[in-house]
Amino acid sequence: MSADGIKVLKPKIFDKSKWMQLPRDVVIGHDALAQLPKVCEDLRLGSSVLIISGSNTRTVAGAAVERMLEDQYAVSHFSVSAISPEVIQLAEDAASDADFIIGVGGGKVIDTAKIASYNGDKQFLSVPTAASHDGIASARASVPLADGSLSLKAHPPIAVVADTGIIARAPHRLLASGCADIISNYTAILDWELAHRLRGEEISEYAAALSRMTAEMLVKNAAFIKPCQEQSAWIVTKALVASGVAMSIAGSSRPASGGEHKFSHALDRLAPGKGLHGEQCGIGSILTMYLHSGDWRGIRDSLRLIGAPTTPKEIGIDDETAVQALLAAREIRPERFTILDMGLTEESARHLIRMLYKE
Questions:
Q1: FRET label pair with 342: which of 39, 97, 162, 357, CA 20 to 30 Å apart?
Q2: Would you state the pLDDT for residue 133?
Q3: 162: domain range?
Q4: Exposed/middle/buried for 113, CB within 10 Å: 0-12, 13-18, 19+?
């Protein structure tokens, strides 16, 4: 009689593996842009570089980057006025002869560089000129389409060089939007934990803790987030980079994207071009924190201190559109379970939006 088929006594093998991509060099602070040539030298990425920037951000920093690098590298430039699949393809074509890419600008510039470098199998460096959302260090990119924004998987930058002097000079609305995006991590984590309990979704406690810590950091320092202050830019940029790292550790955007982000993407479909991504996520976070029976007033008060909007009216969206966005949120990434996927009624959605205007 053979015991070959009996597996009870056979040793169990731990075969779990995970590949995490994280930024290798991160430089944040006053006059950090001056460190860019040294960072490029340290990374040894090649001899030619494509610099992607917008018309305004080229004036702000892109032209300076070109001058810094032109003695050591063959430098070419690609200008981005809006992000779209067509623009991304043009950026990929422009990068075909470059060894690496540097994105100098805001969200659409960084995301264009991120996708073009990913599709072209090249490394890219992120040089943000504003701290408006956590895409400056994450592996996700957002591309606006006719029916709303599409979130794409890419790869994180191999380096982030964030000059707080430049970021502090950007419009305060952009910084406040970045703060709101980070503060919304609170409810993203609650949604992730809910999906773990109800659907058995795998959760990374380390990524969740790091993401929650970034939100706590900004709530704790909300009173210090002021216009044109480098200290404010430093606090927010550090949090944005940490949030991007949390997503890389998790292998998805789950640590920083829950129902509040689905609400924001629904608004993009129903009222495109009204609010900034982070602003919409901040408002969504107030709503979803209320549904989670958490401290929604604390989130609202922190957003107010920072100067971020807390109602649809403040970003030019009527209340009925916000109601419809709440109801449509379940249609956005239906595989991502959140508190907004639990059967919210139209009456409850209207109550939620009215609640935003109450003291």
A1: 357
A2: 83
A3: 25-170
A4: buried
Cα distances from 32 to residues 150, 206, 282, in angstroms, run 32, 29, 29
Low-confidence stretches of the chain (pLDDT < 70) are 1-18, 145-150
Based on C-alpha coordinates, what's the Rg of the chain? 21
Same domain assignment for residues 38 and 132: yes
Handedness of CA 221, 107, 259, 282 (dihedral sign): positive
Residue 10 has what pLDDT?
Answer: 52
Same domain, 64 and 105: yes
| 3-class DSSP assignment, residue 294 | coil
Which residue, 150, 170, 190, sits at the end of a domain? 170
Q: How far apart are CA 141 and CA 154, in angstroms?
A: 7
Report the alpha-carbon distance of residue 270 to residue 188 in Å, rounded: 22
Please check whether residues 179 and 65 belong to one and the same domain.
Answer: no
We report the CATH number of the domain holding residue 68 as 3.40.50.1970
pLDDT of residue 146: 63
User: Same domain for 70 and 163?
Assistant: yes
Contact between 23 and 158 under an 8 Å Cβ cutoff? The reply is yes
Tens-digit pLDDT profile for residues 258-313: 999 999 999 999 999 899 999 999 999 999 999 999 999 999 999 999 999 999 99
Supply the pLDDT for residue 327. 98
What pTM did the predictor assign? 0.90
**273 with 307, same domain?**
yes
Q: Residue 181: what pLDDT?
A: 96
Whether residues 178 and 165 fall in one domain: no
CB atoms inside a 10 Å sphere around CB 219 = 20
Distance from C-alpha of 215 to C-alpha of 256, rounded to nearest angstrom: 10
Same domain, 30 and 107: yes
